[in-house]
Structure formats: C-alpha cells, structure tokens
Amino acid sequence: MPPRSLPTATIRTQVLVPLGFGDGYTTTARVFSFDGLVDGLEHLAFGLGDRAAPLTSGEKSNPPLVRPHSECLTGDVFGSQRCDCGPQLREAVERMADSGGFLLYLRQEGRGIGLYAKLDAYALQDTGLDTYEANIALGHRADERSYLVAAQMLQALGLSRVALLSNNPDKARQLRRLGITVTKQVPTGVHLSPANARYLATKARSGAHTLDIPLSAA
Ligand SMILES: [Zn+2]
Predict the structure, then answer these.
(1) How far apart are the first and last CA of the chain?
(2) How far is CA 201 from the centre of its chain?
(3) Pairing relationship of beta strands 65-70 and 101-106 according to DSSP bridges
C-alpha cells in the first residue's frame, strides 16, 4: 500500500483520444486528468492497449507497463535531434499499446528546470559543457525531476504495482520510496542520432542510465 504521506489525487476526467504519429502509426488512448496533484500542474495519464478500456476497481494480476515521460516540447512536438525524447515517446506508446500500460506525461520540461532554462542550457552546451554541467552552471540541480505526482496518478488509477519502462534508475528509486512496487524495470531502446550521441553518452555516464551505446558514438 502507498504510504499515508502520499496526498490523495482523484481522476477528474477520462476520455478516448485517437492518436496518430508522423510515421503513420495510430492507436487510441484513454486520457486521464486529475484533481489533487500536489504541484497544481496539468499532468496526464494515457491508458494504452487493454488499459484504454474503462477503469475497473481492483487491480489486475499482471502489473501494467508504466512509463513516466517528462515533457519535452522541442523533442516531443518538433522532433528536435538534440535529445531522444520524441523517439522514446513514440516507442513507449507502441509498446504499451501492444502489452497494455500507462504513459504518464509529466509537465516537467528540461529535467524540471523549464523550457527557457533548457534552451539556456543548450546554449551553454554549445560552449562545451555537458547537459548536467550546464544545468548546474545555471544554478539548477543536474536533475530536478520529482515523481511524487507520478505516484499520486498511479494511486488514483488504482495501481500499486507497475512494470517500469525506463532506463533511468532514479525513476524506480523515487517510485519505490513513494510506496509503488516496481516489479521489474524494462529497458527502452536506444535512439541514437549524430546530433544526440554526446547527450546520450552523458546520460549513460553521469545519470547512470542503463544505455548500451556503442563507444564510437560517444
Ligand atoms: Zn528532449
């Protein structure tokens, strides 16, 4: 059971939304909004595959695949090549549509520092700093993301056990601390491009992400 300290959130609205991606892939999501999320931001959950069905009370025996995805306007919407967020999102949606799961779309842009600060950090990276060093140079922590609202959303969806689709050990650590049982961590693919090779290598080195990146690319 989640610890008592987790503030209760409730489902505000659930509505079916047909999705279509640039490569022609389509699926349908049940999109959930919430009341009571502690930071007051408009985070969403996308139920996919058999989890696009209406919520029923009581947990199913197999924990769903869950991916907390932090908003990245440049990557998710415009296909920025500076990161791998767009392909990660696209992969996560299809894998969850295949096996059933929830994508938690968290409004914490730029590892929580915000969109403008992320662009400031990009400018610093162009002078030689890596993604974490740039955040610190701007007076932020290397990664300011919190998964408290993710845990609240899972609780509102009636989920205490999840299979986490992520390469980031911090997500599993934080969710476990918040009372969510992570039954397993499922790695995502590596979406390497010439423009994001250095970024991915830094994530693997400094963020302890479990990415299998060819050394020649780093
Ligand atoms: Zn991104």
Answers:
(1) 42
(2) 19
(3) parallel
Residue 129, SS3? coil
Q: In angstroms, rounded to a whole number, what is the distance separating the alpha carbons of residues 89 and 95? A: 10
In terms of pLDDT, which residue wins out, 55 or 203? 55
**pLDDT digits over 29-62, tens only?**
999 999 999 999 999 999 999 999 998 777 777 8
Q: Name the catalytic one among 145, 161, 176, 205.
A: 145
Q: Is the pLDDT of residue 22 over 70?
A: yes
Any idea of the CA torsion for 199, 171, 136, 80, to the nearest 10 degrees? Answer: 40
User: How far is it, in rounded angstroms, from Cα 42 to Cα 201?
Assistant: 31
How far apart (Å, rounded) are the C-alpha atoms in residues 104 and 68? Answer: 5
For 17, the token pair is 């939304």
Q: What is residue 173's three-state secondary structure?
A: helix
pLDDT band at 4 (very low <50, low <70, confident <90, very high): low
- What was the pLDDT predicted at 35? 98
Query: Ligand 1 centroid to 8 CA: how many Å?
Result: 30
Give 154 Cα–ligand 1 centroid separation in angstroms.
23
CB 63 within 8 Å of CB 53:
no
Categorize the per-residue pLDDT at 105 as very low, low, confident or very high, splitting at 50, 70 and 90. Answer: very high
